[in-house]
Every structure is written in structure tokens, then in C-alpha cells.
Amino acid sequence: MNILVISMEPPIPTNSGARMYLYQRLKLLRKSNNVVLFSLVEGEKCDFDESDYNEICNEFYFFNRGNKFKNYVKNVNLPYSIGSRSIKLLKESINNYISKNGVDIIYLTSIHMFDNLPLERIRRDRIKVILAQDNIEYLLFRDIASKESNLLKKIVYYVESLRLEKFEMKVYKSGIFSGFTFISENDLTFFQNKIENNMKCVLIPPYVEEKFYKRNITNNKIIVCKRKIIPTLTRKHHFVGTNCTIGIRKTA
User: Fold this and answer.
1) What is the pTM of this model?
2) What's the CA gap between 103 and 98, in Å, rounded?
């Protein structure tokens, strides 16, 4: 199966919980699928060790996020956290990759990357799109707003949470997603109660000692495979490419 993963940050270095979890998911999927990673990076130079990625994906492409404010100005109709990550070159590259190679599943690691999906191509080719709900983002921003002591920041975060909620509810009900994965049972339950639909929701805890459940998404079953906890990597890498790095393909 050809799986295209779209992430708002690279999985290496695994210096945060989100990156460690992404690394684990990629490694799991790589065992029995062709995995292609498209990821945003921030900075001006790109320095990486190809061998670090061979275990978790077959190809990887990095795109500079660039100036967040300029990105947002071009997409002011969107919530800031989504509009500032909307990259024209990334969206075009994903569309071109699908056109040339075909894709069975797109795994979107965050709703923040939604605007980079080539929706016309996805609908035309009937590609399944799975969204990783590591957080329910509008609730996260609302929680930040409630705890913020600075009045201006409190207002900014709260307004962003309202815009996110409106945006999320719209896209969740648009029919573009075939399913969702969650790491929190509370988030899964909240989501199912909030969004009344028949889409597949699967709980995937961040750490599993012996088995991880891998079901064939095309059959609405979970994908099962053995895996061990992956330790934090000690190497330091900085993926901050220019516009886009050259894709690296593992031929073996």
C-alpha cells in the first residue's frame, strides 16, 4: 500500500513527545507499506542523515515553512494556525506526486496541515484521508486562553479557538476524511459525541509494549503488527531546508 504522510514537523530529532509518536507511527507503517513523508521544517539550512530515515519511510521531502505572517496574509480567511502553514509549493508537490505515483491513503498528522491537501485530486482519485487527532485543536487553544494571564493574549487565543472550532466542524463534516486516530480515549469519546457521523475512529495509544494494532483502513479494520517502544534518539539534526529538499528514495 502506498501511504503519503503529511506532517507539520519532521520526526527527527525525537526531542518531543509528538515527534517520538510520529517516528513510531512511521516505523510501524514502513514495515508493510511504501511510506512517503512530506513535512514542513523551519530555518535556512538542511542537514540530515539519510540513514536515520531509511527505517521509517521510503521517500521524504521537506519544505520550509517560511515567514508565518506572510503565509497567513495570503490565507487570512483561515485560522492562523492553519493559514500560516499553508504552503503553495507543498500542495503542488503533493498533487504532482499523487498524479505520477498514485496514493492509496493520505495520513494527515494534524488538522493544521489541512490546507495543503489537493482536495480535487483526492476526490477524483477517491483517496482515503486519515486524520491523526493527537489533540482536538480548538479545545487546546481554548484551554490555553483560559490559563493565560495576559489579557491581549487571552483574547487572541480565544478568538483563534472560535475560528478553529468553526473550521474544524466544517471540514469534519465535509466527507473528505475516511477516519480518525486518537491517542486519548477522552478525546475520542468527545469527538464521537460532538461529530455525529459514521466515520471510523480508532484509539492508538502512544506506547504499546508488545503489540500494536494495524488494520487495513480500506476495509475499516485496524492494521496489527508487533512493535517495541522506540527510545529517544541522541543524534542532533536540524531540518530547516530552503524551499524544498530533494526527495530521498530507499531502493531496497
Assistant:
1) 0.79
2) 6
